Amino acid sequence: SRTCPSDFWRSRRCSVTPSKAFMASSSATPDTRLPAGTDDDAQLAGALDENEKSSLLPREECRASGSLVERFRWLGAPVAAVICLIVVVIAIRAGTRSSTSNVEDAVELFPLTNKPQSDMRLYQQHTLPNGLQVVNVQDDSSHQMAMAVAVRAGSYDDPAELPGLAHFCEHMLFLGTQKYPGHSEFDSFLTKYGGSSNAYTAQEVTVYFASASQAAAEEGLDRLADFFRAPLFKKEYVKKEVQAINSEHEKNVQSNGRRIMELLNSQADPKSVVPRFATGNTETLYENPQRNGSSAVDALKTYFKSRYCPAQMRLVTFGPKLLSEQLQLVQKAGFGDIPKGEESCAASSRSFANPRPFPPSSMGRSMLVAGTEATGQVWLHFELPDVSRKYKGQPLTYLDYVLKYAGKDSLYRVLSDSLGLINSMATEVDPSSAGTSFYIVLYMTKLGFNHTEVALDVVFSYLASLRNAGVDTALYDSLRDMVQLEWDWQQPSDPEGTAAGLAEAMTRLPREQLLTGDSLIEEPDPELVTQLLEMLQPSNMNLARVAPSDSGDAPLKELAASTPIRTLPYYGVKYVQQTVDEAMPGAAERWNRWLQGRLSSEALGKDVRQRIQAANITGSTSADEPGKLRGLVLPPHIPKAIEGIPKHISKQDMRVQSQSTPTATLLRGAAPDVEGSQGSSNVEMADKLFGPTPVRLDLDLQAMDNLSLALKPPSSGQDVWFRKGWITKSPKVTLAVSLRPLVGPDALEVTAVDSVRLGIYNKLLMEEIGPELYDLTAAGSTYDLAVGSSGLGIRFDGYEEALPHLISKVLTAFTSFNEELNATTPARFNRIAKSLREELQTYDSMPADYAQHDVSKLLRRGEHSQAESLSALNSGIGLDSAQRAAGELLLSKDLQITALAMGNLGDQQATQALRSIASSLKRPAWVEPSPSHGDESVMKVHRVVNPHVPVEVRAVNPRPGDPNDVALVTLLYGVSDVESRVILGIVSDMLGTAAFQHLRTERQLGYVVTAGVGIMSNVLYAMGMVQGTKLRADDSEAAIEGLFTTIMPGILRNLTQEDFERQVDAYRQQALEPPLGKSQEIGHFWEHIKEGGQCMHLLDEVLSFLNSPRCSKELLIETWDRLVFGKLSAGSDNKDGSSESATGPMRKKISVKYFAQSSKSEAGAVPEVQRPSLEEAKRIWTKQGVGAAASELLAREWQSAKVVHKADSQVREDLAQEGGYFPTDLNCDASQRSSPAEHQVTMLQGRQSQVVSSLGAAAAGQPVLHAQGAGKGLRLLLGRP
Asked: Could you list the active site residues?
């Protein structure tokens, strides 16, 4: 049971959480603030004061002693409670806890009970005798352990002469300790238990975190404790790890946001810590110490001694173990034995507020910056005081809402839609004890960048209006209520995220507010908000104008005659610095005049309008009224209090029905025998984890006379599903609907032109209906509409009482937009088209991202390259063509409805809601219907191209000036079955760890090094990727092949039976991990439902296979060999669809190689793109660790490979012509293995195939990246997002 006996509430000694939940008004009664079924107890619990709460017993003591209450009930509840308490205390003192744990020496245990209503976890805090603060988190349903340590030490603690030392310390702690000296022992240990680890260094804190299966808890904690008890800091690892840090810095340099923030930080007083270089690189951590005769390791030891003492550490443990047992493990691991350290460390309560980072002399600056992205940007940086101790008022929540509000006539809508000056806007906050950096970021159109001052006029007129209006207490109160409501029903973080987040929060927040301090508005503080608003003024602002990348240095050179071009150290940012008055003469004076509040709103609006007209900006004005700015609201509209926040939430249907109740009897019109809804033989575990499988509803669409769209039922009956309630706790409802066209076997794929039309249509749609619906969604209910060639996706999520109104509003707006072809303005279309053109012309992401997209373009129909999309955009797509896209390409066709209603509603409400959606969707009157034919059906499983030969893409790094080469190797296994999903899923984490250890840690090939197993539609694949400057792409490809063909086979063959069983158990524990919240419950069913409901029982089949003798080390080795060597199973044909050459098998291999533009020939080509000869390639393979047998395979593939210099739809069509597609079978039974016949390919005739563009992300083919994150790949391989 998750609740203690009610008598313990009456004795006030049981720490069941009296959750602080939604209070719609000050008159809300306690019983409305707890889950259903605990009302009586909640009323008593609400009376507990803080002193009484601190004396509550841990819940497990309540469980152990519950029978005592019954035994002494005849004495009365108070006496019974006292007797129970005495017995428990005697038991504790008698030594029920392990003598080795030393728990009795711990300081007072403090249950953390102020938590969300949805949170069924238990929390307790305590402080060990050495001063180390600990929080234990108990989650009975989890099979994972997690642990995290946060240290109050960060980059602000770096010595001035050694930038990056704190970051260096973070890296070095992973490279061996006295008890566990191996440099990769920690990662290797976690890998055995399906685990992962990571860490990050911030300004004032460094956080280390890890997770694994529960079996790793005891030793894992012991290993983590040794990080802080006895790190080795071996000098022989310094150079390699500094190289890793240097690679990380080179990755950071590619981030435009990071570059601009560092530039703005560089304007701070040099005596403060803010402008320091935080990451470190080879120069600061290796070359400079070598040059001046100092030792980075010696400095590291001094730093560690001065900052890493128990009083500055915070530890969090997470798992299913009882809180007291977790505490025992903490003590057994020796966290309590870590020496207290120097007094100066223990007593440190430092602040970096002095010297003041941004005094008046450091503000009022304007910088013109050479940008790296297609879109110009304007950053407004305001320096605010440290408000971290003002968490009860959450003043920045108020500022963020009023600035980012996107309703009708808001600041955002005026700047974007009315004037066409921006594409989007954002706010960013960077808090620390040195102060709070508050950023307003405008992502400009070219018109807007050329008229930055006018855009800022609108911003400051809005700030002036906010000042004049004062803080709206009604809005503030509604934000408090909304935040409370969303916090109460939020989805908890995963184990690793929970541990890391709590550990960091412990460094800032008191224990009483540990779970609430970063979220709830407990004490609104209008005075503080007013003070912060008054600081948003020109004299307290620095400005960064970031030019579009296609401008190069030209804008800077125009100013170079009077102002030199500067370069930011370490980041290479080129900029020109002026004062705001020099850059925009008279602007600051004008803004200050507005901010002083002497103008009425009308006069202020008139001033701004005159500025806009003087700049000849017409915005969305119609052509026959130039310059009139018709309908423009100035200053922009300030949001009012949020209306419609649910105040009386029914929880009647919140929890899923008992599984003992026949689900079909709960439904009206449910089919008694649902195809695909029953598992094979072992359905109990999936039902236990995710609840009963949804069943079909009959919407009786044929009887609805108000249907406009042709909604066809599938041949097997209605494809509409329903389930009442959640396994997790949420009062919300989710309605997911997919309307997909019926297509025939000869259907053509969507063209680039139509794909661009649909993309622009979606943006036009959202800009038209978004402002009108914004206030509705602010109250906690959301919607999503996505129109694509493969269908219309609709999702509503929210509170049942609010959904009918939201559904009506959204779909009425959708229908109106489609019917009225003049609903949008040419100005809006032109702005969106120009923005899209700029994006398609620019490559500003990491090259590794483009390499992954190249693989997808080669294998998935409906995808196009940026060049193809740009050509399509320039082919003459206009406003009328874009607005007609949905009607012509989708709504004209017969559509099949697939839907899932799930959550806090009954079957009648579900039926009514889904029928309302179906009847509200209208076919525009101007659309000519295109009826389906008898042989057409919905494409449920999207086809993947089956390349006949290996494919090699050799291209220039698409990002101009980027120094990295990229190699991405993808090996297609073939159509998945339960066996291959499980076996390759087990391999995935080991593969990722091997790549990290061998290619990144040992060889330092780059910071972006990843490997793993993924699934694209129904096709499994393994991938490995390296992005770096150390090797050319051909060499990196060879290093990946060495990983695949030499390192991994060795790892698998060297597994002991115990090691293998441990890996299987870790995979099993990940599979048994319950959903964190309703989104995972929905995700578990929805993708299977869209595929026809055939694999609802997949999880049970996986567990069945894991427990079968077929799951063996031998099969693990055989499967991996078949994938990476193209080997065949004994007595079988090409099970995986591998190709056969004249001399041996070949793999289904896609290689993408990008070469940095380091040098160019006269013809403009990059010489390195030229393919090496076979003999040169063989030398590369040998050098990079590829064995002789694998070299023979690579030689065959080298000779047969199809070499191309781009990845686009034309290359994909050629591949499909040659090799066809993998079958679309879904093999979901453990007894069902893919047969050779199932891997025979389907050949195309010309360009004929089925449409495979997808609405959902499940088939996106994203790889299971290592990123040191266990469990992520498993959910993908199980079809669970």
From this structure: 170
